[in-house]
Amino acid sequence: GNPFLPGPERGVFRTKDGGKTWQKVLFIDNETGVVSLAMDRSHPDVLYAGAWRGLRKPWTIISGGPAATGGIYKTTDGGDHWTHLTSGLPQNLIGKVWLDVAQSNPNVVYAMVEAPGDEGGLYRSSDAGATWTLVNNSQRLRARPFYFDYVYANPKNENEVWVNELALHKSTDGGRTFEQVPTPHGDNQGMWFNPDDPQIFIESNDGRANVTEN
Q1: Phi and psi for 117 in degrees, rounded to 5?
Q2: Interstrand relation of 71-75 and 32-39 (parallel, antiparallel or unpaired)
Q3: What is the pLDDT of residues 69-120, one digit of tens each?
Q4: Residue 106 backbone phi and psi in degrees, to 5
Q5: How far apart are CA 173 and CA 77, in angstroms?
Q6: Which terminus has fewer CB within 10 Å in the chain: N or C?
Q7: Helix, strand, coil % over all residues of the chain, rounded to 5
Q8: pLDDT in tens, 137-154
Q9: In angstroms, rounded to a whole number, what is the distance separating the alpha carbons of residues 143 and 90?
Q10: 87: burial class by Cβ within 10 Å (0-12, 13-18, 19+)?
């Protein structure tokens, strides 16, 4: 949707013909779009969507809105029907939400959630989204959440989780503790793991794409 104005072109769109035509399968309201999608690759009809009320004004950035509309949505039928997941998540205000499914155990889902005070941070579900637990709300993980707040899980290790923000952070205990991993440039944005050998992955930031083999 238009980042400067409310409008109907927000939500989740689906194609069944390789991109020739699209159907809007999730619409929340004119100000709430979807910033992230995560799929259970072993059951591709299961997807999670991170809903985010985001508007850019000349004088400010609006990042977040009522938890009654924003947050996490889930479908188990490829987008035909969606359920708003709320148990354990912030109940008042929610901003940007980035999601990833641990492909080695798809019951484990991670979410970086922008929210006020101590409510924001890394959430984890161990029951496919039915309930969520805030596992880490360190300010080190959530600088400028409207710009960062990215989380990625190793596809072969459900407890290895990475958070991208100004720095790159790695956890091997399901997000409870993190260590910082140096990168050649700051402002870290995204990761792609080789699904067969996750020791090989690409990490991107404002400077370039970085490749590691170890």
Answers
A1: 55, -135
A2: unpaired
A3: 999 999 999 999 999 999 999 999 999 999 999 999 999 999 999 999 999 9
A4: -65, -5
A5: 32
A6: C
A7: 5, 45, 55
A8: 999 999 999 999 999 999
A9: 18
A10: exposed
Exposure of 22 in the CB half-sphere (CA atoms within 13 A): 9
Query: Would you tell me how many other CB atoms lie within 10 Å of the CB of residue 33?
Result: 25
Nearest to 114 by CA among 102, 129, 98, 96: 96
Whether 164 and 150 have beta carbons less than 8 Å apart is answered as yes
The residues, any chain, with a CB within 8 Å of residue 187's CB and separated by 6 or more, are 147, 148, 166, 205, 206, 207
Q: What is the H or E stretch that residue 212 is in?
A: strand 209-212
162 in Cβ contact with 191 (< 8 Å): yes
Bridge partners (DSSP) of residue 52 are: 33
CA–CA dist 58, 199 (Å, integer): 43
The pairing of strands 168-171 and 179-181 is antiparallel
Q: What is the pTM of this model?
A: 0.96
Mean pLDDT, residues 8-21 taken together: 97
Beta carbons within 10 angstroms of residue 50's beta carbon: 24
DSSP label of 118: G
SS3 of 140, please? helix
Whose structure tokens read 């399901």?
174
Angle at 43 between CA 178 and CA 151, to 5 degrees: 20
